[in-house]
Amino acid sequence: MAHTELDLRERRLIEDMLNAKTPVSRIATELGRHRSSVYREIKRNRFVDEELPYLNGYYGMVAQKPASNRRARRCKLVRLPDLREAVIAQLKAGWSPEQIAGCLVFECQPQRVSHETIYAYVYGPEGQSSELARHLPSRRKKRRPRYGRKPRGLVFPPDRSIHQRPDHVKTRETFGEWEGDLMNFERAQGNANIASLVERKTRFAVLFRNNDRSTTHLMNRLMTVMEPLPQPARRSITFDRGIEFRSWRKLKPGIGTEVWFCDPQASWQKGSVENLNKRARRYLPRDTPVAALSNRNMKAICDRLNGTPRKCLGWRTPAEAFRDEMMTLR
Asked: Domain check: are 109 and 167 in the same one?
């Protein structure tokens, strides 16, 4: 297992548990660390003031600063100014970190540095303050985690394919089968977006705002919205393979809802929610300031969509059809 240093969250937890008179061995168990690591952390980063001894103790925020400073001193590009200036000059000349590190080895320079160290410096506090990342070929403000991307086949396994979905869902025979999607907006609106859900049999629509694009946030919001419905009214949801749905596994244990996925680039396989999105765009164009929309605004839009008669429902409204189906569950 790779060595990982204590972070601020762990240091705050140590502080809280020490204040609660928790034994160090118990703290180590809670953190999943060896007790020697916790003892060493407390001893090394304990705050001591000879003039005000009553303030002596372990403080997570105070401990984080010297730990960060020690870590920075270990970086060659912090300790060796000549090497740092040479690397920065080559970065500004358009060299990649791999080219810089390889050239140092090729020229047998006494001071060398790996490309990983250069990347760490560029995306560290010193490099960010100098905006060094803009000189990289990729020009990303934040570095993508190494080995972080998982194969889509593991995220969306074959047994969750729409082709494994029961036939009665396709024929709209049963109530409680939903489709879901995410409505995105102009970049100027930030991370805010709107999730759209539609019940396949009744065409009943649900729209709710998200202030975050993360999959965890989306799935937690979705469960909060769906949980008030009885179980037969939330049997399944069909999504596309957007990475925002990668935490789909939460839905089965969370609210007892099965999840199915369309084929790649086959949005037509969830045509009901695509049709809903098209209708909703009349009220939610791409330049909509989503963050300013209140829950009342979202409900008003849903009420208008669900209050419009539909030919496929025999000119009933989705709200009427949904209410009739809910009555049969009682």
From this structure: no
Say how many domains are in the chain. 3
Q: Residues 287, 172: one domain?
A: yes
Per-residue pLDDT tens digits of the chain, which is 330 residues long: 445 678 888 888 999 899 889 999 989 888 888 889 899 888 888 888 777 777 788 888 888 877 776 665 567 777 788 888 888 998 888 888 889 988 888 888 888 888 888 888 888 777 787 888 888 877 676 666 655 555 555 688 889 999 999 999 999 999 999 999 999 888 887 888 999 999 999 999 999 998 887 888 899 999 999 999 999 999 999 999 988 999 999 999 989 999 999 998 888 999 999 999 999 999 999 999 998 899 999 999 999 999 999 999 999 999 999 999 999 987
What's the CA gap between 232 and 256, in Å, rounded? 10
CB 234 within 8 A of CB 257: yes
Bridge partners, 181 (sequence order): 196
- Judged on CB neighbours under 10 Å (0-12, 13-18, 19+), 316 is middle
Q: Is 150 among the domain residues?
A: no
Regarding whether 323 and 255 lie in a shared domain, the answer is: yes
Cα separation values, 49 from 18, 55, 61, Å = 19, 7, 16
| pTM of the shown model | 0.56
Domain assignment of residue 114, given as a range? 76-135
Count of other CB atoms within 10 angstroms of residue 315? 9
Same domain? For 174 and 194 the reply is yes
Rounded distance between C-alpha atoms, residue 162 and residue 259, angstroms: 9
Written as six digits, the tokens of 223 are 């469960």
Whether residue 219 sits in one domain with residue 298: yes
Q: Is residue 125 part of a domain?
A: yes
Kindly state whether residues 13 and 114 are assigned to the same domain.
no
